[in-house]
Amino acid sequence: MADHYFTAKPSAPSRPEPVELRLPDMQLRLMADRGVFSGGRVDPGTLALLKESEHPPAAGDLLDLGCGYGPIACALARRSPAATVWAVDVNSRALELTAANAASLGMPNLRAAGPEDVPTGVVFKGIWSNPPIRVGKDTLHELLSTWLGRLDAGASAWLVVHRHLGSDSLAEWLVGEGWAVRRAASKSGYRVLEVAR
């Protein structure tokens, strides 16, 4: 059976290849690989998130939840070099790729970490995520509840989800959990959601 991108240790043979992240304010060459989310290209949802969400605060702790090979985390680290960017994933290959991409791009402010390696006292000035929808609704809700609960007062989380993968029902669930949810953009079926207290 093929691995999911949320498998801790992918069994797919490693076959790294470069991908280009092109944004209005930067162009980054990243290495991707099999066995991680969107391993052969920059996911269109990720692009929508990085183009449509607000730019990160200049300082503080920022989170890329479900970082894959690191396109979101690297963009955050480039946009806010004085901030600490936590790139979190359960996939060991994804974390290795993210750390290597950050090193090759000269981003000492990026920390690739498993969920258990982020100190419990860290509170985030912002969260960005193309969340792992395919883990299943219950697991996804638990994941989001855990990390959204670590948002600093007045901070927002930015999520991108395709409408065919349940963006609208996710937004309804978040509202039911007491979060304020605003649809910041809708591009090619992707919803960019701002989530705040």
Strands, helices and their partners?
Elements lengths: L16 E7 L2 E7 L11 H9 L8 E5 L5 H9 L4 E5 L3 H13 L5 E4 L10 E6 L7 H12 L2 E12 L4 H10 L3 E8 L2 E7 L1
The average pLDDT is 93
Count the helices. How many? 5
Strand sequence of the main sheet, in spatial order?
Answer: 5-4-3-6-7-9-8
- Total number of beta strands: 9
Largest sheet: 7 strands, mixed
Give the N-to-C terminal Cα separation.
40 Å
Low-pLDDT parts are none
Hey, roughly how much beta strand do the residues contain? 25-35%
Radius of gyration: 15 Å
Pairing-aware structural class of the strands and helices?
Answer: alpha/beta
Keywords:
197 residues; 5 helices; seven-stranded mixed sheet; two-stranded antiparallel ribbon; 27% helix; alpha/beta
What does this structure look like?
With 197 residues, the chain is an alpha/beta fold. Helices cover 27% and strands 31% of the residues. The chain has five helices and nine strands, in the order ββαβαβαββαβαββ. A seven-stranded mixed β-sheet has the order 5-4-3-6-7-9-8, sandwiched between helices. The longest helix has 13 residues. It is globular and about 40 Å long. The model has no long low-confidence stretch (mean pLDDT 93).
Describe, in short, the structure shown.
This protein is an alpha/beta fold. It has 5 helices and 9 strands, in the order E-E-H-E-H-E-H-E-E-H-E-H-E-E. The chain has a 7-stranded mixed β-sheet, sandwiched between helices. Strands 1-2 form a two-stranded antiparallel ribbon.
